[in-house]
Request: fold
Amino acid sequence: MQKHYDVIVVGGGHAGCEAAAAAANLGSKTLLITMNMATIGQMSCNPAMGGVAKGQIVREIDALGGYSGIVSDKSMIQFRMLNRSKGPAMWSPRSQNDRYKFAYEWRMMLERTENLDFWQDTVNELIVENETVCGVKTSLGIEFRCKAVVLTNGTFLNGLIHIGEKNFGGGRSAEKAATGLTENLNQLGFESGRMKTGTPPRLDGRSINYSVMEEQPGDENPSKFSFTDTPKLTHQRSCHLAYTNDTVHDILRGGFEKSPMFSGRIQGIGPRYCPSIEDKIERFSDKNRHQLFVEPEGWDTVEVYLNGFSTSLPEDVQYEALRHIPGMENAKMFRPGYAIEYDYFPPTQLTHTLETKLTKNLFFAGQINGTTGYEEAACQGLMAGINAHQTTSDKEPFILTRSQAYIGVLIDDLITKGTEEPYRMFTSRAEHRILLRQDNADVRLTALGHNLGLASEESLKRMETKVQDVAAIEKLLGKHSLETEESNPYLTNRNSNSVKQKLRAYSLISRPEIDLPSMINEIPSVAKIVHSVSNNLEVIEQVEIQAKYSGYIQKEQDSADKILRFEGINLKLDFDYNKLESLSAEARQKLTKIRPKSIGQASRISGVSPSDISVLLVHLGK
Reply:
């Protein structure tokens, strides 16, 4: 057994896997310590990746050289691009995955990663010397020394599972909680809190009558997450939609007196945007039904995940309510839903690299920072793993801005605003979302990942070819004039106004009724031009987006550039804000606690007003 490492990653969930892979691939000798080697990369809750804003994050991870997109593609059983009816800033890839294949692929990818070792054990104490972490102690009494530690403990820190009036320690169903580490961190001066999340019952698919439910198939031409050559889906499994009703609600209400949520036994705050079923019928009492998603857990299993029915009610109440949902009259449960409480550490205690302010070379990533969701955890793990390597190798920190990536938005939100409830990413959180589309994640980030040493030379060349092909097609279509006899029949078919003179093919794409694929199919000269450069569907999509939204994209880029000027005005981390009496009392308190590194970050702190920023700018000017 080796006892000395560059980076130690604690926890084998989505954050831990990305952190370990990133640090090891960058050249750090890395150790991944997990409580159970059999559950590395496990999908603890729903068997799906991506979704609104989350899909953009998975593509960003992939563009930087992370593994989540590749693992998702290799274990995919269904793919859908959400929000296609809206603008491209809202398009969000989402997959249903084979839960068991997903974990298997993660394990195999990690085992094939050089510089990465594994150890099954529980870390219950950090070794800290001179305010710098230099190792960990495990429950077996073993000490591992290192230069940096990344904590990705998920829901395991003092985890407490609730089912009705019963509760017991656990970090996940049938897995024990991790104890000792929270208390150790508190002794080092860290502030901690409690949060809660939940999961629905798992059902036997053989006992469900799908014929009375609404089928939800995947896309006819499924795409994928990774920009690399991962396999495309050739066949898919459908999900189904079911609905609760008044009878189901009445049965659930009958169990409220035994609900740990309503009785006060759960102290942690739950996710606002993924509430339990009992929370839904209480908060939205005017609704007589709620939508449920019946999701298969994989190719070769009958187990089903009932998305939308998260609950901590007694198992008999859950069972009785389930059997009154149309199609589930004969349903059998594999295991009941439950709620879980766990410790987290308010993320305002971190810097933009996810390193803690109190202890040097100690990084937090994932649910320990108060987030919820595989994708949010994975991107934090990637960034923490990168920066753990960077700081211990005396290299520049790697930080993404809010206009570069959703990852930058997420981390800046966490460390600047903090969170008192499980944080979930949405497109609405990104003020520059027209720049942060899922289709251009490679263009935005692959060169950065390559410069780090994560993204491959092949990935860089693929991205550069894509950019060159898009520019070439735009130039050729911009020069090509369409005769009226060529354009008008097509325009008529598309219910678009005909023209009386020749016009440039590129300008035609900007019309809302027009799309480039149909132009290629119906106008031979356009097909000849495009296919002379590329048949790549991603290239064609990029050309169309640029043609339709170039004005908006440029306006957003100009806005982002203006905001970046404030990011370049640095604030001293040891500045005494109490000396500036012109600042509001709340601003002095918040600025002293968070210690922003720039005027830009200070302006995003809740409680710091524009007038407070003016005071800071005047002071810096002096």
